[in-house]
Structures
1.
Amino acid sequence: MLTVWGESLDKNNVLCEYPRPQLKRDSYLNLNGMWDYAITDGGTACGKYDGQILVPFSPESELSGVSYRLVPDQTLWYHRTVKLPAGFNKGRLLLNFGAVDQTAEIFINNTKCFTHIGGYTAFSIDITEFVTSDSFDLVVKVNDVTDTSHHSKGKQTLNPKGIWYTAQSGIWQTVWLESTPKDYIKEIKITPSLDEKLVKIKVISDSDLPCTAKTLGKEISFTSNIEQKIEINDFIPWTPDTPQLYDVDIALGEDRISSYFAMRKVEVKADPNGIKRIYLNNSPYFMHGLLDQGYWPDGLYTAPSDEALIYDINFAKEMGFNTLRKHIKIEPMRWYYHCDRLGMLVWQDLVNGGGDYKFMTISTPLVTGRHSRDGKYTDFSRGDFEGRKQFYAELDETINQLYNCPSIVLWTIFNEGWGQFDARKAYDRLTAIDSTRLIDHASGWHDQMIGEFKSLHVYFKKYRFKKDKLDRAVILTEFGGYGYKEDGHTWSDTNFCYKNFKDKAKLEKALCALYEKQIIPAAEQGLCADIYTQLSDVETELNGLITYDRKKIKVSSDTMRQLAKKLNG
């Protein structure tokens, strides 16, 4: 099942855009394209390669050219020879991976140089000492146990059905090489302070060195590893309607990077009537959004092109939405860049892990309204200490990787009790890392009675606004899920949704009734945000506003925009 972008894919020009716009260098060698691959049983070494795979598409995907499902006791091998262009090496060689699912071991010229665990976060390796000429052999060894262990898995499963989707493995985001001088910028941290009319910039390097930053006609000198404040007196606040970005160029010695920032503030506070609301840039703002799974029929986790990423964001805006909840997945950095520049608020979920989820634990709040304390590790399938430890490590990596994205305004720690544990500790840890954004500690249920939000999922009954007993802001973080099957544009004959309709007209009428009779009155009473399920169909789940292949829109954009206008007053 192909999207239009998959149909026109050029194998010699795959996702070639610079993959990390928040820290961009002129030095850039894209390593996407055809690689050798092999799949072996257990930890068996690779004797010969089975063929070629199109990186960065996982072997399970159609676009990879392989269409093979890796199982937990198999090993996936990648190989390619890298030839450096003349003059490319400036002193250090940095090898970057957007994401590799799940455990990756990296070999340069048959020498192991790095291991990364976790299928969703980016990693970078200094391979300078392993490269002794203008070419080298690169091998990536991958093992992926998917949902058979404690590792983060998102919505991947070896037995896909309903809201659980096809598992994918291996390299699924761009691989690239860059070169820097000996002293270089490892990371940057940008924090806007709208009320103080300044932006804080911190350049991270191995040692404290002189730096400069140029922005808005100013050039500021400072020292790396120490936060620098830059006054921004005349600026346009960032909103979905005015997504104003400001460029900044940073230098450390001979190393040069470009980035950007926006002046944006988000908080929860009482409105003049004493109702807790979400405020954007010191004004009440209703966040009207869609659940966005980030799956593609031809690339699975990997969008077939940059244009495909842009299409989904623009589609949501055309429908009148100002928010996307990125559900249980971390996207390539270019997706966040497009949200930043196009104007789309992002609620970012952390990726869930843990053992097999227990039906009684997960479903009890939905049926009875009772919420359990999440220190009961076994009940929540979090009995494995290493799994809990890994979750915290990935929490740190996720926040660090996405910190500079202006569009991200909320972090979701746990969803519907999936692998939930010690939410209060996770909430405190996340707040210590990032105090500039909102946090939903338990989306849906197993509320630990903390934080700024009462977060609700409502599918099988009418929603009526009720003030939170703890006086927190109330957000409807999932609802709807209305389905319609568009013949000729479905993954299979199986149809899963929360409420099914036989034709588009009935679907649209039901959506209007849902918003006009439930959501809009609730917003007037105090509801702060809504997230409808969902942007697109995904495999057998047919409750998207657009089909899985993005070829058929199910509801009128005019209708959806009119509903959005009523929500936003």
2.
Amino acid sequence: MHVDLKFHFQPKFFESIKTYNKEKFFADLMSGIIVGIVALPLAIAFGIASGVTPQQGLITAIIAGFVISFLGGSSVQIGGPTGAFIVIVYGIIQQYGIQGLMIATLLAGVMLILMGVFRLGTVIKFIPYPVVIGFTAGIAVTIFTTQIKDFFGLSIAKTPGDFVGKWATYFQHFDTVNYWALGMGALSVLLIFNSSKLIKKIPGSLIAIIVMTVAAFLLRKYLGITNIETIGDRFTIQATLPKPQGFELNMEVITHLLPPAFTIALLGAIESLLSATVADGVTGDHHHANTELIGQGVANILSPLFGGIPATGAIARTMTNINNGGRTPVAGMVHAVVLLLILLFLGPLTKYIPMACLAGVLVVVSYNMSEWRTFKNMLRNPKSDVAVLVTTFLLTVFFDLTIAIEIGLLLAMLLLLKRLSETSTISIFKHDVSVTDSEDHEHEEQLHLPQGVEVYEIEGPFFFGIASKFDEVTQVVGKKPKVRIIRMRKVPFIDSSGIHNLETLLRNAKKEHIQIILSGVNPAVHATLTKAGITERLGEEFVCSHITIAVEKAQQFVGETNK
């Protein structure tokens, strides 16, 4: 087991360092500095929106960001707190407190490592697209909803946790709008959307924070306007790294926190591998999915030990890294060091940042995250996909992410099974049967069936979705055949229900003195039938490679029984 894990754990850092040189270092250094500056406002905003302090958001970006780059399976991945976690983190804190969040994050880290060890990286990529878009859009709406209070500067003592309750409270308190805060929030949004047209290298969120912070400071100092709430009015930021802290673990706590921990792990796996895949498309590189999951897991174990929150790969920051020349994990490690230096030397200055400005930053994040155009286009897809999309979206908004992902995946799987069962068909031939695999019905060669021989052709997977259909077809009323040929040339796989069907068929056929012959069984299905003992019970001579051989065998059997 140790050798297997070592073989599959291949951090990109150790691969890239073999051919590292001065040119790559300077490219990574410049990119890391820029990404660190981009990550600063996001780390602070995500931390506050998640229900923790801005310092905890920064700590997460520093520790998890460094570890994800150092031990991850992507050359350019940038890790840290992301908008996707805001909803789940806030919900865990409300129900279990900060201690509960730390334990859930640590458990999620263990789950991510196990996912990587058991090579589930490739499986995670097959999460249905409607589920991903549904919960992503739902998270975006929820993030937007949580920012209304600060964006409008509403005077609300305590905001309800549920979506409907929040909006009901907002409407009840809209007469308390702080127009200075509203102006700050609106101008922040305008700056973020328009600054890139003028200054491409500096992120719009940073420009908005600098401009609005200076404006709030001047308004307070020279015009006496003190009702613009800032970070310093709510939080105290210490310019130091926190000391490691322990947790009180017991089975009762772990049992309660397993569902939210699993949601964190699944969400982290999906987002990080999605980000790494997008990055591969741009750079031409190829990430190691299972190594990436292990790196993410280690990061999420270490992050809560220092008071951090869940972290994963961030698409926006990863793309910023790529666009600024970063090509090895060193860029991500530099980004973490830059954030550490900012915390140690400029941390106290963050207390002057207006809350309304951070709300504006998150409003833009939620807008970009919503992918509303993709959501709108997907509504034209088949009804089953639309049902999964809308269900996941509504459950995310009105309930929580854990329920949304679980039910969304369950619904997607049920609909997939329904589609598979609809594509699987059973046809009966009593007189003639096609010999060729050609779709050209005019020129296909027909084979005449002897009297007393019937062919049952199965097209598609032979699984539990078609099992009942097969039972119905084989319940023949009237004169029964002497030989039944089960043609399986178009059966890609067979499950336990299909095997059970064949066992039942063999048992009933023996009672009714009907010989069963299997035809066109592919090697994979043949191996499954052999393992299940079907070929032994039937007799290897009655498992034929082609329909012509099967019909000859049937004709021979009928001739012998007629003597």
3.
Amino acid sequence: MTTQTGLSQYEHVRRELGDILRRWDNRLRLRVIVYYLPYSFLPGLLIGLFIAIVSRMTPFMRAGDIGLVALIATILGVIGFVVAARLWPRPPLHAAQFFDLTFNTKEKISTALEILAGRIQAPPQIVERQLEDARDTAKAVPANAFLKIIARWQSWAGVGLLSFVLILLLLLPNPMEQELTAETVRAAGVEDAIDELRDLTELVASDTALSAEERDALLQELETTIEELREQGVSPEEAFAAISELQQQLEERAAAMQEQLQQQQQALESAADALAERQTRPQENAADSEDATAEEQPDEAEQTPEEQIAEAAEEMAQQADDMTQEQQRQSAEALEQAAQALQQSQPQIAQTLEQLADAIQQGDQQAAQQLSQQLQQQLQSSQNQQQQQQQSAQQLSDSAQQLQQQAQQIAQSNNQQQSGQNQQGDQQSRPQSSSGDTASQQDSDGQSGGQEGQGDQAGQNASDQSGGETGQSAENASESDQAGSSNSSEGTESAAAGSGDENQPNQTASSAGNAPPVQSNNPDGQGEAQYDPIYAPQAIDSASSDATVILEPDASDQPLQEGDFNENPLGQAAVPYNQVFADYSDAASRAIERGYVPLSLRDIVHDYFSSLAPDN
């Protein structure tokens, strides 16, 4: 029996068999990679095809992004397969057993490995002969002949077909991409609007120029608008309406602040003018009037009203003891006039001016100087507050303009999305309507002469019935039928235009029952529809279907033909007013609800349609 120590002399056999097994294993792995490599492309291609198909049914992903995802998935699939095929663990004994079956070596190689591993015990003579035989057999095996590298062209053809279909789907125009782009732009606009509202919220919260009530109202409105924009699935119309409403409120608040500042400025200017008329009078009779006028005085045009008021009050306070009673009275009246001008906008300053007027009139110079200093502080504080209000109003106005831009961006993206949907609907309905248009053109070409004769006959009958109206009334009746789209035969000019130009989108029909599909002018202004003229004899009290009209007096220089216009002639009417009014009124209501109509015009549009409502 052999032992593990006795097998050490066969180490060179172990190394030789190991090298042979590694070469066979590498050949086998290469064969597997080449044979199954096409299948590693399938996951990435199928993922790309699935996303491309879904993106054509719903706005999900753009063509470039789909191609990038498919490419990355394909590369990862190929790399993962190659790495797995090359590094998948395979013990030497398992490989030897596989190759014994593949090469039909009668388990000589696997038996030799088991002997070298000590799993099989045998006498040294048998072990030596067994190992030598396994080594010679392994060297003689033509491994390349058994492990041929095979590439199946059918698999590669399938991969090429899937790749072609995917590339075709990516290159063909996708009607959903425009909607996806509009959705992305709209989402970006909503996010930008939310960021702008957050910044504005911080600004309003720290703005000391606003009163507590104004600040709380604006913060509440900002928070409400942000919550509306954050809602899942918010529609473009709702986002546009919320932003537009907030924009209008900001503009109104900024305008109110500007108006308040303007009123305060006008009041200060009035107070300054009232003091400017009186402040020089006490100096006119003073002994040092000549020296006072000789000193350099600052240019009043460069001074603010606050500075002019403070300077005038200071001069009056300093000269309170030197004034005569008349001058004190005049100065007090000037101060009271200034206080009256500031009573509404600056009540604290007005109260100080009244107190200063009392002190000057009483000749109390010390009290007047104290009140003058207090007035200067109040005026300085008022000036600083006005500057803060001016900045706040400007910031609110700028924020309103930015919100207007965001709202316009959302509206434009929504219009692009609706345009893409309309184009898609037109493309789907165009093949169905094209055959009808061709047939209508052929009918118009073949029957234009007959229609012209019918029109002349109708005109002749109408002339005979009216008695006073001849060829001119028949011609006008034909034109009236064309304008009203009635179910009578079309005029000769309309038929000739339809038969001469095959590219015209709207073709005239040979009869009311065979009208071609034309662009419809529905209340929403979208889509195509089959035009069916409606004959409504109840619109005109008539028992006959002959078409005649009432001719209005012509103000031009063309010669007129006299006729009998006393009686209401017989005629027909199409689409009564009271039947189509509801459609247009509903369209206007939907536009108002969805925010398409500006807030300032909604009442006008509503009142307009209310005034047009029929009586019945």
